[in-house]
Input
Amino acid sequence: MATQRRRLGQKGMAIALYGLMLISVIGFVGMAVDIGTIYMIRARLSAAVDAAALAAGRSVNLQNNLQEAQTAAQNTATQFFNANFPSGYFNSIGSPTVTPTLTQETDANGNPSGVLDFQVTATVAAPTYFMNIFNVHSINVATTGTASRRGVVMVLVLDISSSMNTPTTPTACQAMAAAASNFVTLFSPFDYVGVLPFDLTVHTTNAKTGYPPAQNQLATLSTAIAAIAPPPPSTTNQCGSNTNTITALNQAYQWIKSVGEPLALNTIVLFTDGSPNGITANFQTRTQLDSRWGFALNEPDGNGFQGTLWTNATAPTGTSTPPGIANSCDPQGSNNAICINMPTVCTNAADTIFGSISQTSGQNSYGGQTYGMQAPLDGVSISIPASCQATSPKKGSPGTLLTGLPSADYMRQYVAYIPDTDYYGNNLHGVTATGSGPTVANGLVTRDNWLFQVNNECSPDPTVTPNCKNVGDLWSNYTNIGMVSNFFPLNNNAYANADVYAGKFRPDQPNSIVAASMNGTMDQANTVRKDTTYNIKINVIYLTGNGGDAVDREFLPIVANAKWIIPLPYDSQYVADATNPTQLYQNPAYQTTQQTGTYLVTADKTQLTSLFAQLASETLRLSH
Amino acid sequence: MRLIQPKQTQGRKEAGNTIIEFGLVMVFLVPMFAGAFTIGLALAKGIQVSNVARDAVVLAVRSTEDPQSGLDLSTTQNQRIIVKAANGLGMASDASFDPSATGNAAVILSRVVMVGPTECSLGVVPAPAGVPATTPWSAGNCPNFGSYAFEYRIVIGNGTRWSSTFGSPPSADLQTAAQCGTPVPANCVGSITAKNIATNAAVKAPNFPTATGMTLAPSVYALVSEMYADVSFLNFFNILSNPTVIYARSIS
Output
């Protein structure tokens, strides 16, 4: 009976047990559904804040000031969040709360490190379905997304040499000013942007449109750059003098280091219309009479320009002078002539003259007048030793009586030679070669043996103006031009007494100065790029065609460390669409361990706005 | 023996009860578990699709902002990153995770820009006289100015089955490797030339603001990754609604 009762009592137990189990199972399934919902919402929320933070990171570009940039970042973050997480997504309740914040990272000393952090935090209420039974109607889901933007420290180095004053308006100087003025507005006010115009002197002061890189000065820079050469009909402009690219690159480098943001995108943007022609160095003084190109500044006897100690020379055997040019000391100082027994004023050969020399006008390959000394930088003085300030009076150009110190512009006459290393320690013979080609010698890519004013090539595109330019060649292929070398020769009658400088770059020949300048510029660029603390990238815009200077296919790509070199407009491989070239050349000095810069070239000044925009776009990833 | 008889009778009466009860319970349990299983898998796949879209847009951002990173998403080897992330969604054509053009999934990457001064400067060359120094860019001197335009489109996977929700640029306007030159610059394949962006009406993306609910400032771009995945293989009991395609989008 007891067993029967027990069995009767167990009747329906299985159902009850299953019922109990069902409650548990339903509970677990319900929990799974709720947690799944929460997880689903959280995953979407997480994706949305990540996308919003990334979008905010680039929205600080194109703004006028820090406040606008901050507001733009916050608005962009919210907008992109909303696009990724629509209101009511997966039945989420209400609108998400989005909190974007922007902070500048600082280094150990509390200074900006060059990194902007964008953090987006979002919270939304996820609905519950089964937990509703237990009076839990929603659960807040929160997540945070972070993105970082490398700040930009950029120095815009602008060539404002005289060749920018092209004859038709708008001049190249005006076109450059308009394009560069627009260019700087594309950056973020959080970026450190500076401007460094240069001719033979590099202009570091506001009065000369020089602005060290700083935050929040884009509008000031834009206005100042535009004022370099306002658009037509204005004829005012600051373009003049020569092209001291080495000092400009060095100064830009110093400015970037002075900002001191190693984590930033440290960049130099170099705009130039041609070959550099300025050398800054401590030049050894010339203390003995010798023969070289140029005119006699100082007549030793004080009686007119044709003194008694020097004589006219005959053309050296096997060489030629430009047609119509006599071999004589040229009192006007404007033509090519070899002056026998060029006078001296310096008395101590151990002394040096500090300053910059350059070519005067064309890249004369026969020798001729050069220019300098000039100060390499605003606020920096040339230095002339006392041993070169001996006698008085001294004559400069006709009718000008110089008293005491000779005019600095004529001090090049007392320079013995161009040294192998310039003031900044650059090798004036070139940079290490990593490839091959006609400009490679002794392991260097060098212009040591380069003659510029030869090898005229014409563009396959008839719209390129001018349609033909000299592209240069090795001196060895032209045995009857000038002294067939950039260096003082040994045992050459035409250079009596100058043979003590045999093998040294000649300061009396424009071609030599250009060659040494190009070598030094390539080495200066290499010095800048090999700085592993700041990892500086050099981008270059090259406007060809101005003036009579030769063009060079590989010089500026080497400065930029572009891996591939696009053809010049005068190259037979040139096609009008530079973005789609048919043939690229290898950079013979490409350094794989250094930053690869962008190299852009055009012969058309009206394309400068586009090229600057392209550079901004590639630097900042604005759109393209 | 009598005492045992009732027991036997009762045992016979109860015989099969367990099975019946089990069956009754299973009527509820099986659909519940099946539903939970299917929905759970679908949710998991949904999260995976969402994550792939998210990863793809992050890669696209990285590729755009740092071209030297080597993340050119037009190359098969880089597309494998996305295909691997979509493992199990039928996107791969082989064990190397090469994308399948006939598979069950596709990722569509787009870059859309509001054409502004920067795009006009890049695409209208030479710039008209006085622009932008004295005359601003406008639709008069730059036809696509003020419009949304595609800059880039790459489709990974089955691009014939699915298309973007906000339209597609003509394939003829997307640059091919042959058009990009040799060596092919990073991110060139699939891009649209600056000239077309600024001047070609065919590359406009007029549906972008309505499809995404976004408005962009001039010269600001958005990268969009869209993913489609057909998960009909999970639809064991027709629990999921048709069509069984999961779509996720990420915009950055």
In short: The two ends of chain B are 84 Å apart (CA to CA). The mean pLDDT of chain B is 88. DSSP finds seven helices and four strands in chain B.
